[in-house]
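Class, discuss our next protein.
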Amino acid sequence: MPAIPQPLPRAFYGLLGVQFLSTLVDNAFLIVAIARVMELAEADWRIPLLKIGFTLFYVVLAPLVGPVADAIRKGRVMVLSNALKVVAMVLLLQGADPLLAIVVAGWGAALYAPAKYGLMTELLSPHDLVRANGFFEGATVCAVIFGTVLGGLLISPLLPVLPGPMWGGWLGATGTALLAGMWVLLGLNTVAMLMCLGIPDSGARYDRQPLHPRVLVLRFWRENLLLWRDAVGGMSMSVTTLLWGVGATLQLVVLRWAHEALGLPLDQAAYLQGVTAVGVVAGAMAASRYVALERAVRLLPLGLLLGLVIPLMLCVHSIAMAAALMVLVGAMAGFFVVPMNALLQHRGYTLLTAGRSIAVQGFNENAGMLVMLAVYAGATALQLPISTLVLGFGALVTVGMVLVCAAYRGQWMGVRVV
């Protein structure tokens, strides 16, 4: 009989709750920001710029956020990050450019990532990481589901139109039908910030490191090289960088595909996007149950199948079939990415520290997202058809995974990694 898994620390479940709420608000915020761009009748290529703006600070601040997460109690870093998201919602309520608001929210999210993942690595043993990542990914993707659904609700006619300006014009002076949704997001961001006050200290302490920009950049460069040159670290980071880049862009592709191929408005297309996350939850939970950390590398060939399934979107013309395909794509991605992410976290923590390894991981994954989103923005400006984009992203995943499998054949054929 398989051993009964030991319960995870109570502090982990508090972290899980904060992660759920923060991710829920981030995804709803993106939908509301897209709706605001459309309400202002701005160019279509401005929509992928919102994703780029949210991701930008993950890359720009990468040399700094890791040392900050190691130098300060991670719960306090998480309070600061959610406070920045509150500021972002206030800016949107005041009528600021949606791109400016989402850049500020991305600044907060960039600070938040090394703190949350670093704290999880500090709280748990290596053998609990895959299981914890399954819970974490499951909660994250549930938040994506409910966040996209919430975003669709917040921009739908079901929500009342609030009069503006409010509070003497300090908030709500945007003259927009989205005002009620913006207030809901402001309230949720405030709750997430308050929840972070209860995040416990793991007790982990690291040597003080200088925070001079030149020293930080040089050290960060060396840490990148260290993780990339490590056989297991380089392999797992190649996979997660590729799939995060494609996945972030595919999120926008699905919205456009649902509108053009299925005739769905933005609020209903957001619901279909959320269905993809149902599959990711199932795949993530299955991975947490059946995949041990030392066997994660054997899942590499599964990435090839994922690339071949994506183009099937072009053969679907009904909402029911579209939902089924999105669940399948999500399940394959969840089952594949969760063990890869846990493997990269463990290897990075072994070679570096919790905060610094997560910062390196976030830098590479979000740099991949920026490149892919920039390509998508360019393709949108050139008015390339959706069929070309879907085929291109499917081919990118397949070819990329072929190269990774070939480069790291020794690892996925059974090298021990723990």
In short: The chain is about 75% helix and 0% strand. The mean pLDDT is 77.
